[in-house]
Amino acid sequence: MKKTIIIAEAGVNHNGDIELAKKLIDAASEAGVDYVKFQTFNSKKLVSKNAQKASYQKENTGNTSESQLAMLKKLELSREMHIELINHCNAKNINFLSTGFDLDSIDFLNELNIDLFKVPSGEITNLPYLRKIGSLKKPVVISTGMADLQEIEDALNVILKAGVNKSDITILHCNTEYPTPMVDVNLKAMNTIKETFGVSVGYSDHTLGIEIPIAAVTMGATVIEKHFTLDKTMEGPDHKASLEPKELKDMVAAIRNIEVALGNGKKEPSNSEIKNKEVARKSIVAKKDIKKGDVLSNENITVKRPGSGISPMQWDHVIGTIASKDYQEDDLI
Predict the structure, then answer these.
(1) What distances in angstroms separate CA 283 from CA 39, 272, 276, 277, 294, one per listed residue?
(2) CB–CB of 227/9 below 8 Å?
(3) How far is residue 19's CA from residue 45's CA, in Å, rounded to a whole number?
(4) Is 246 in the same domain as 294?
(5) % pLDDT > 70, the chain
(6) 45 and 110 within one domain
(7) What does DSSP assign to residue 252?
(8) Positive or negative CA dihedral for 9, 11, 13, 19?
(9) What are 37-63's pLDDT values in tens digits?
(10) 155, 22: one domain
(11) In a 3-state reduction of DSSP, which class is residue 324?
């Protein structure tokens, strides 16, 4: 099985602090993920001054009067911070990734030679944005929170028309609620996307815990994205619905185990269990003492362990034959 790409979404959980961002990179590297992902945006180009925060943002920040613009302004990463974080990722042997939320941010990330571009759920209906992403002709991952199949198809067509190969596109099933209620996960929709559009699929998770991403891998997800933080009790909009470092590490370990456990699909005895066949299976044995020349019947033969003799599946062929020698009780026939 091809290795699942695991993206640890640091997002804005750095709270605008470069040292905190580096600690997030350290935690992601230690957990063994493939990418650690941040967010690149210019607040004024992302939201208008009148835009309100989402209800979960109001609840998690404890500030209902603050505008979305004011909140995001504190969470911006400067150009210099990006370069510093990329260097830190290189030192920690982990891939840097960031989601650009405006056209200038996409250009900037391209200048930094980012090898993979992520379309967040909120931009799936943003035609100029999608066209810009597609024009880079680099691999694209598309999140689909809040979207229906028609909106996914429209976005996919824009990116394809702009020049991205279909084989370089992965569409992530997603639900844009933080945290996502289990009743709204609808994990089967991931495979609906795969069947409808013939693309690689994955899952971007906002549920609490790690069980749903693990389940997604068993269903064929090729990419898993999950928010993480150093501490869920920190101030900020996304910390509460994020994993802490130990949970992230546990999720990665479970996914890697699942990848191995899924195997090749061929049903045959494994190398580890072959040695147990003789112990666990049964053979045809003497039910009581049998003399040479006796007819073998239901009265004088039975089935017991070990499985080193004649298989009980040959029972009908043994019944009615003549004993070729003397047998004592429990001797293999």
Answers:
(1) 65, 22, 14, 11, 19
(2) yes
(3) 26
(4) no
(5) 99
(6) yes
(7) H
(8) positive
(9) 999 998 887 888 878 867 777 777 777
(10) yes
(11) coil
Query: What's the structural domain count of the chain?
Result: 2
Same domain, 253 and 221: yes
Identity at 16, one-letter amino acid code: G
Give the pTM.
Answer: 0.89
Q: What does the alpha-carbon distance between residue 61 and residue 15 come to, in Å, rounded to a whole number?
A: 12
Same domain, 185 and 241: yes
Give me the DSSP letters along 94-118.
-EEEEEE-SHHHHHHHHHTT-S-EE
Rounded CA gap, 157 and 171, in Å? 13
pLDDT tens, residue by residue, 99-136? 999 999 999 999 999 999 999 999 999 999 999 999 99
CA distances from 278 to 195, 273, 304, 306, 310 (A): 44, 10, 11, 6, 11
Instruction: Say if residue 155 is in the same domain as residue 302.
Output: no
* Euclidean distance between CA atoms 26 and 33, whole angstroms: 11
Distance from C-alpha of 157 to C-alpha of 277, rounded to nearest angstrom: 55
> Which SS3 state, helix, strand or coil, does residue 142 take?
strand
**Closest by alpha carbon to 25, among 101, 102, 81, 107?**
81
Fill in the DSSP letter of residue 166. Answer: G
DSSP-derived letter for residue 201 is E
How many CB atoms neighbour CB 233 within 10 A? 8
Q: Please tell me whether residues 53 and 185 are part of one structural domain.
A: yes
Q: Are residues 247 and 134 in the same domain?
A: yes
Cβ burial, residue 220 (10 Å; 0-12/13-18/19+) = middle
Residue 152 lies inside a defined structural domain of this protein:
yes
Domain range for residue 164? 5-262
Which domain CATH number covers 147?
3.20.20.70
DSSP assigned state of 332: B
Tokens 């931009």 correspond to: 123
**For residues 122, 127, 130 and 136, what is the CA-based torsion angle, rounded to 10 degrees?**
-150
